[in-house]
């Protein structure tokens, strides 16, 4: 029967992406605006040889966006197959990342990626719930993590550090180091809602003149230097939270 053959084909397709481990997928910017591009990327310094992106949590032929492979002669990844879920607005970025151009409300939802060549023998998978617009009732996960963009910054670039999945905090404080000490404070910022969404209201002893606040109370380090490497901590408040959300990240800068 035809339906039996179809089921077997789908099962065979999904079996190619059985995970041996899971990976963390982040989005940039943390608060994307409609009509602008948004990037989903591997929050890791490894580079896959192959990736398959899907809309939804389950890999299938119907949800397949594209497959990309690393071109060793050119030193970049290239799309070699598009799937049924490809709309023409999806493209490939560095590190086998997915970029969605002219993002729409309908783009919100889970995305799954399966990657090969990350050091193991099998595929590794990750799922990211893309949030296109802010909802004050969005779920705040336990154990929030700080995301770094780009994943492998070089001296002279701008680096963004921000809390994953916390889109509209009311205030934040950023520190150099693993503890919230005054000597390690970079700045404290609050939501203004006037001309700029966030304004720094206190610069600390660890502010070096190159740090700024950005969307979603992110920390931006301009013209990053090797000496900027090290741990960073953030304490962030949301109007719906009864206690601050804290997380840390080890920043590594390549020369």
TrEMBL record:
Signal sequence segment: 1-22
InterPro entries: CEA_cell_adhesion, Ig-like_dom_sf, Ig-like_fold
Keywords recorded for this protein, A-Z: Glycoprotein, Immunoglobulin domain, Signal
SUPFAM superfamilies from the UniProt entry: Immunoglobulin (SSF48726)
Gene3D superfamilies: Immunoglobulins
Designated name of the protein: Pregnancy-specific beta-1-glycoprotein 6-like
């Amino acid at each position: 029967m035809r339906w039996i053959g179809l089921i077997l084909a789908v099962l065979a397709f999904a079996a190619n992406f059985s995970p041996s481990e899971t990976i963390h997928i982040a989005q940039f910017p943390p608060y994307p605006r409609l009509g602008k591009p948004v990037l989903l990327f591997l929050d890791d310094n490894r580079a896959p040889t192959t990736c398959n992106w899907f809309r939804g949590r389950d890999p299938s032929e119907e949800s397949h966006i594209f497959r990309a492979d690393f071109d060793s002669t050119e030193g970049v990844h290239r799309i070699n197959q598009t799937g049924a879920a490809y709309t023409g607005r999806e493209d490939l970025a560095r590190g086998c990342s997915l970029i969605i151009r002219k993002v729409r409300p309908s783009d919100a939802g889970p995305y799954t990626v399966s990657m090969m060549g990350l050091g193991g023998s099998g595929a590794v998978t990750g799922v990211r719930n893309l949030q296109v617009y802010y909802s004050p009732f969005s779920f705040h996960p336990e154990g929030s993590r700080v995301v770094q963009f780009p994943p492998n910054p070089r001296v002279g670039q701008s680096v963004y550090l921000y809390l994953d999945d916390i889109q509209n905090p009311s205030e934040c404080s950023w520190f150099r180091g693993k503890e919230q000490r005054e000597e390690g404070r970079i700045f404290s910022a609050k939501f203004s809602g006037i001309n700029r969404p966030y304004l720094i209201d206190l610069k600390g002893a660890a502010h070096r003149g190159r740090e700024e606040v950005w969307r979603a109370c992110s920390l931006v380090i301009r013209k990053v230097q090797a000496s900027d490497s090290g741990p960073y901590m953030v304490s962030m408040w949301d109007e719906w939270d009864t206690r601050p959300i804290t997380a840390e990240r080890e920043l590594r800068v390549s020369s």
